[in-house]
Design brief:
This protein folds into 3 domains: 58 residues, OB fold (Dihydrolipoamide Acetyltransferase, E2P); 78 residues; 66 residues, no CATH class. Helices cover 35% and strands 27% of the residues. It is built from 4 helices and 13 strands.
């Protein structure tokens, strides 16, 4: 029993000594860390001088081109068409006040002659009534005994009636003359024909459309912008329009005609109406 205890004690003592020697060796041979001062890194910056200047803001939009104005042609009098200008076909052009077609004016010339005769009779009757009134005034001075003559005695109602007939006859003559002018349909402005529905020999009816023309000197385009872009538009905005037709690039400079004032609720877009002339430099780039 004593031998066992002695052996265990010796084994433990050996382990303690060996452990101590190993720890002493490790402590003696451990690496020593090199001491260094911390390196301070200076950041590199670029200094820029800020200057105030205007920056061009380019906003893009797309829209369909339409005519600035167009109108349906119609005659104002009834009659047979006796003249049609050969340009009155789709694509034909007219200058303002040029005659497009003419309606037979025979009946209207007859109405003019009749109105002139009625006016002449009315003027004659007026002069006669004025003379009768003057004669009645002279006769009343002789037989009136100093009393005031009535309007009927002096024929004043007859004179007024005669004057009214003159005015009516003059108005009838003016209408007859106007109807003669209306037998010629003229171009309302410099225009191009979109469609023509009446030809030589046809019977023109007042108010019935016989064709459509449009102003080909200027066009408009409705451009949508988002609300943010719309708010960024300056007052004197420069608009450039681009289009490609048949492989050829076209460019026009447009001006703001007016703001639409309408808001598209589906897209939340506001609109600007721009106007441009297609004839300036032919629009080619």
């Amino acid at each position: 029993m004593k031998k066992v205890i002695v052996s265990s004690f010796i084994f433990i003592l050996i382990c303690v000594v060996v452990t101590g020697l190993v720890m002493a060796y490790l402590e003696k041979t451990k690496p020593i860390a090199e001491r260094r001062d911390a390196e301070v890194v200076t950041p590199v910056v670029e200094v820029v001088t800020v200057r105030r200047k205007d920056v061009e803001l380019a906003l893009k939009s797309e829209g369909l081109v339409s005519t600035l104005r167009e109108t349906d042609l119609a005659v104002e009098v009834t009659g047979r068409v006796v003249f049609v200008d050969e340009r009155f076909e789709a694509g034909g052009s007219f200058k303002a006040d040029e005659i497009i077609l003419t309606v037979d004016d025979t009946n209207y010339l007859a109405a003019k002659a009749q109105a002139q005769a009625i006016l002449a009779d009315a003027r004659l009757n007026q002069e006669q009534e004025i003379a009768r009134g003057a004669q009645a005034a002279r006769d009343w001075e002789k037989i009136g005994g100093g009393e005031v003559a009535s309007d009927l005695v002096l024929r004043k109602p007859f004179v007024e009636s005669a004057k009214a007939r003159v005015v009516s006859a003059q108005a009838a003559l003016d209408k007859a003359l106007e109807d003669i002018l209306r037998t010629s349909l003229r171009a309302p402005f410099d225009c191009r024909v979109r469609s023509a529905n009446l030809d030589l020999g046809a019977i023109a009816i007042p108010g019935s459309p016989i064709g459509q023309v449009y102003d080909n000197s200027k066009y408009i385009v409705r451009l949508p912008f988002s609300l943010d872009d719309y708010a960024s538009l300056p007052k004197d905005v420069e608009i450039k329009l681009f289009s490609e037709v048949g492989g050829q690039q076209y460019e026009w400079v447009a001006t703001v005609l007016w703001e639409d004032g309408d808001l598209d609720r589906a897209t939340l877009s506001a609109y600007v109406i721009a106007e441009f002339s297609p004839n300036v430099n032919n629009g080619k780039r």
